[in-house]
Design a protein that fits this description.
Length: 248
């Protein structure tokens, strides 16, 4: 029975240590996230001129107060000598909480009564664009402007400033199958049946566009429509496309 109890303690101890780390890590991460969000308020107030305290003094006070408060929050049975002052750091750019402590062992192992452990939680003060940016330039800076253009998913190296550009839109017309034989394309040739939808001259209605060479049995034929998708102008330029001479 003694061996069973001893073996159980051996297996349970690592799990208890991991559980302590998990619980403490959750508390540190939550606090780091909260302080990171509050840092924007400090930034905004600094821009407004209402914060007068020296930044270094402010950061030092924050680090000390946070460390003392969190030390008591993360303390659990089986943890001792919790130190959060040595390596923790709270500045206007980053928040880093480092908790060093000893995990108490249920019995001495080779003279050791505990294992040194460390938990780290880190956050940037804010992520992404500069804070308060909409107050400074009202979000209308020319640098931020990137208009939407339109490109064809077919092989094309041109982008268009409007969907109504005649190069990418089709004015679909209707006529009878018999009448299509007498019509001419804008290139002077006869209309030929589409190889995809396979129309014939016996149909009462066929579809065509003045800028194409084929006629179709249905207006939804995939070869009748241009496949157009919106894209940021910067992306189109980066992809090697140039402006349409007609609509740009």
């Amino acid at each position: 029975m003694t061996l069973v109890i001893f073996a159980s303690v051996i297996f349970i101890t690592p799990m208890l240590i991991l559980n302590h780390q998990r619980n403490a890590s959750i508390i540190l991460e939550d606090n780091a996230r909260m302080v990171a969000q509050e840092k924007y308020i400090e930034y905004y107030k600094t821009k407004d001129g209402t914060i007068k305290l020296d930044t270094d003094i402010m950061n030092g006070m924050e680090t000390t107060i946070s460390a003392l408060s969190l030390s008591s929050q993360i303390e659990q049975p089986g943890m001792k000598n919790i130190d959060m002052l040595s390596e923790s750091e709270v500045t206007d750019k980053k928040i880093k909480y480092v908790a060093n402590y000893e995990a108490i062992l249920p019995f001495s192992v080779f003279g050791l009564n505990g294992l040194s452990q460390q938990i780290v939680a880190s956050r940037r003060a804010w992520i992404g664009e500069k804070g308060n940016r909409w107050m400074e330039d009202n979000g209308n800076s020319d640098d931020n402007a990137d208009e939407t253009v339109f490109v064809s998913t077919k092989d094309s190296d041109v982008y268009h400033s409007t969907m109504s550009c005649t190069y990418i839109t089709h004015d679909i017309k209707m006529t009878s199958g018999a009448a299509i034989l007498n019509l001419r394309t804008k290139f002077g040739g006869r209309f030929s049946p589409c190889a995809s939808c396979r129309p014939n001259t016996r149909l009462s209605t066929v579809y065509y566009t003045s800028g194409a060479r084929s006629y179709h049995s249905t207006p939804t034929c995939k070869t009748l429509s241009s496949y157009i998708q919106p894209m940021k102008k910067s992306e189109a330029v980066a992809a090697g496309k140039h402006a349409c001479v007609r609509c740009s």
